[in-house]
Structure formats: C-alpha cells, structure tokens
Design a protein that fits this description.
253 residues; alpha+beta; 14 strands; globular; binds uridine-5'-diphosphate
Length: 253
C-alpha cells in the first residue's frame, strides 16, 4: 500500500491526507508536552484514549447541533476529519480560576467565576501563545468581528454541553481550550469545532475529592497521565468499567 502523505505533525497529533478531497486523517500520538514543549514524555495508551474521547465529545456536540470536523473513527488511533482553515486563536472557556488566569490575576485556583469567561490566545509558539483581545484579532485579520461573535456563541454552547456531561459523571469542568476551523459550503463560510476535545485540553477535577484528571497530572508531576484519562473514559462509559490501566485498553464500539 502506498504510504499516506503527511500534511502536518504537531506535538500530540499527526495529520495525513484523507481518502477524499476536503478530508484528513488525524492520528493521536502518545506524546505529551507541556510548557510550550519544554517538558515532554510518552504515556502508553494516551493517543488511543484521546482519539476515543474526542470522538465521544464531538459526536455529542453534533447531536445538539454544534458542527464539528469529526466524520468517523477509523481505528484505535485515527479518525477521519474535515479539512478546515484553522482560525489562529486558541479559544479558552473558564468556569473556575486555574492555571494562567490564577497566575495572571492572582485569583486562587478553584475560585468559581461569576460567569463563564471566554479568552483568546494567538496561536504562535515562538511568542508562547499570548493572550489577545478581540481588537487584536480583528485589526490583524485573524478573524472578523462576526467570526468572533460566532466563536463566542459556539464556545459557550460547547461549555454548556461539556459541563453537563462531566457533572453527570462527578467531574468539574474547570476550563478548556478549543480550536475553530472555517469550511466552505457552496461558497459560504461556516465555522466548526476542529482539532480535539480531550483531557489534554481541559481541566477536569473530581467533584468530591478535587483529584485532577487532566494534563495537569503531567504538568505538575501528580501521577500517570494514562491512568487519569482512563478514569475519565471509564466514567463516561467509553471504556468498560473493568479496565483499570490504559496500556491495553479495550474499546466499546
Ligand atoms: N490549553 C491547551 N493548550 C494550550 C494552552 C492551554 O489545551 O496551549 C488548555 C489548558 O489545558 C487548560 C486551558 O486551556 O484547560 C487554560 O489553560 P491556561 O491558560 O490556564 O494555561 P496553562 O496553565 O495550561 O499554561
């Protein structure tokens, strides 16, 4: 079989040319990076878990009418997605203070915010993804004001959906990051959720114990990342309850 053409390789995923025009194959690696890739490790099974979890969230979002890039899962580590033009903004929604917001504003981690707060970070590793305002995004042509209004609407719908799903399994959605892509349908642009939604890009705390079940486990050396992600997947019913470690996860179809 001819080797597929690699289109892009990022820190945690690889994109290959898809079988049809306008499609890509997204491959989830086991690599974990933090602090702009200054800290790196490999967690066996993480890619399999994130492939399945991102599918779970994207399919759920489609079910409530939020458009996403997800088409179908291909195998344990790969999914077919729509090719998009990525808007160069990381869109973060926060329900509780944590991470960079706590550092920047001196708000203790875990403080409930008066309402969900949407932030934009300019996607540029060389600049360390700086926090930017809507003014910057419009002035520099990264997105139009209409795009930004639509993005905030999408981000808040994703927040409502994810918060509810997580609360149902005893997990607090502290914050998360999404990326947005533009697709063209009959010459009309449309914004859809792209990239991935997984514990790599969310903060998830057990509601009762406060235990962290997300990438902070790796960032802050709190244990095995695959164990934490397996727990999230198990609670969501994505893995059977008898799987306790992610080295050889069994998938439910
Ligand atoms: N996040 C992400 N990718 C990034 C930066 C942040 O997925 O490049 C996620 C992060 O996991 C958290 C949220 O966005 O769920 C907010 O991150 P924050 O700004 O607090 O930065 P951090 O403390 O992760 O550096």
């Amino acid at each position: 079989m001819a080797r597929r053409k690699k289109v892009y390789e990022g820190k945690a995923k690889i994109l290959y040319e898809g079988p049809e025009p306008g499609t890509l194959v997204q491959y989830f690696k086991d690599d974990a990076t933090a602090y702009n890739a200054q800290k790196k490790a490999v967690f066996e099974g993480k890619g399999v878990l994130n492939n399945r979890l991102s599918e779970f969230f994207m399919v759920g979002l489609a079910g409530i009418g939020v458009p996403t890039h997800f088409i179908k899962r291909i195998n344990m580590r790969e999914q077919l997605i729509r090719m998009v033009e990525i808007i160069p903004l990381e869109v973060v929604v926060r329900n509780f203070a944590a991470g960079s917001m706590s550092t920047r504003l001196g708000i203790p981690e875990g403080t409930a915010l008066p309402r969900p707060i949407v932030e934009f970070y300019y996607k540029d590793d060389a600049l360390n993804d700086p926090l930017v305002t809507e003014e910057h995004a419009v002035a520099f042509g990264w997105a139009s004001q209409q795009d930004l209004d639509d993005i905030v609407g999408l981000a808040l719908r994703v927040n409502d959906f994810l918060s509810g799903v997580m609360m149902g399994v005893g997990i607090r959605l502290v914050d998360f990051k999404i990326e947005i892509g533009r697709v063209w349908e009959n010459d009309f642009p449309r914004l859809i959720i792209a990239d991935e939604i997984s514990p790599d890009s969310c903060r998830l705390w057990d509601i009762k114990t406060g235990q962290k079940l997300d990438k902070d486990v790796f960032r802050r050396d709190l244990g095995d990342l695959s164990d934490a992600y397996t727990e999230v997947a198990r609670r969501l019913g994505v893995l059977p309850s008898n799987v306790t470690h992610a080295t050889k996860p069994t998938l439910i179809n």
